[in-house]
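for the recovery benchmark. tokens below, seq after
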């Protein structure tokens, strides 16, 4: 007869709180709208034609999506054109931003981190997961540190089995 050996999860007993940066990314789709498709001869935007396009286009295809407004070519783009686009999308889009899809993804990540209720982490030992499938900007690492350090007992980067100490409150 073999003896049964109890397996103890030391990480679970450690009291560490694990946060995965991937959990702070938005779940909804981010769509890039390139205003270059509206340019005349790829150099300028004609107000009359653009206004007609804004009026006739079916903006409902952007329903419940985050929108990244951008221009992929070097052209003369008046500021009001982005205002018109934003106005047309307001009814449908979750959020509207200027920039690339990747840039908007990082903006939304920062906003999500800023919305953390830091009171939930008072006097906790926190490990911020350092590896994942998605790119996390340096700004996001700075933001989560700034958000949690004032309340945390300690802050670490990595995995519970292999962490890099970032901050430890003096006793």
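predicted aa per position
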């Amino acid at each position: 007869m073999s003896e049964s050996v109890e397996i103890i999860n030391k990480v679970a007993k450690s009291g560490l709180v694990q946060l995965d940066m991937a959990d702070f990314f938005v779940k909804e789709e981010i769509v890039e709208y390139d205003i270059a498709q509206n340019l005349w001869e790829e150099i300028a935007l004609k107000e009359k034609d653009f206004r007609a396009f804004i009026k006739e286009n079916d903006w409902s295809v952007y329903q419940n999506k985050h929108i990244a407004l951008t221009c992929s070519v070097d052209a003369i783009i008046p500021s009001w054109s982005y205002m018109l686009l934003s106005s047309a999308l307001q009814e449908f889009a979750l959020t509207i931003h200027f920039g690339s899809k990747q840039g908007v993804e990082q903006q939304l990540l920062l906003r999500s981190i800023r919305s953390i209720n830091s009171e939930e982490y008072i006097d906790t030992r926190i490990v911020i997961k350092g590896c994942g499938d998605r790119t996390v900007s340096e700004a996001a690492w700075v933001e989560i540190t700034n958000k949690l350090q004032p309340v945390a007992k300690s802050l670490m980067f990595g995995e519970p089995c292999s962490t890099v100490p970032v901050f430890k409150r003096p006793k």
